[in-house]
Design goal:
The chain has 138 residues and is of the alpha/beta class. The protein is built from 6 helices and 6 strands. It has helices at residues 23-27, 29-40, 54-59, 89-96, 107-110, 118-125, and strands at residues 7-9, 47-51, 66-68, 82-85, 100-104, 130-131. α4 links the parallel β4 (82-85) and β5. 25% of the residues are buried.
Length: 138
């Protein structure tokens, strides 16, 4: 895929969900992020949801253009692209390649998730801004 997008949204990965989380609740964050981006983008701006895998795409469906493929994030970016997603390897990938990245972590939802190190996210938040809810995203 050679297309470039103005906004790329990265949905949660599977490890953002625990067995006690309901999938319907976990899915709620993606439409919220899409809604926030749609409110701030220009009508001509192109937006895509970029999934790592087809399974992630099935777990977090969306109604906008989407693409699944591991390791292809930078192929979709230009110098004007803004990526929105959870703190992870994509943050480093974008920062090292001069791509704007807005981090989002639903602190209330993930605080009890043993798969996510909130201490690591708190330390990362001392270095980069991480929105704690939709209101803080942009």
């Amino acid at each position: 895929m050679k297309e470039k997008f103005d906004y790329i949204i990265l949905p949660p990965d599977g490890f953002h969900i625990t067995v006690r989380d309901r999938l319907v609740d976990a899915r709620a964050c993606l439409p919220g992020i899409i809604e926030v981006v749609q409110r701030i983008k220009r009508p001509t701006d192109r937006m895509v949801v970029k999934y790592r895998t087809k399974i992630q795409q099935l777990n977090f469906p969306c109604d906008i253009e989407s693409y699944a493929g591991y390791g292809t994030l930078l192929d979709l970016t230009s110098k004007d692209t803004t990526v929105v997603g959870f703190p992870g390897s994509a943050v480093l990938e974008c920062l090292l390649n001069d791509v704007h990245f807005y981090s989002f972590c639903d602190y209330d939802r993930y605080r009890g998730n043993g798969f996510i190190s909130m201490d690591a996210i708190e330390r990362l938040a001392e270095i980069i801004y991480i929105a704690r809810n939709m209101n803080e995203l942009f």
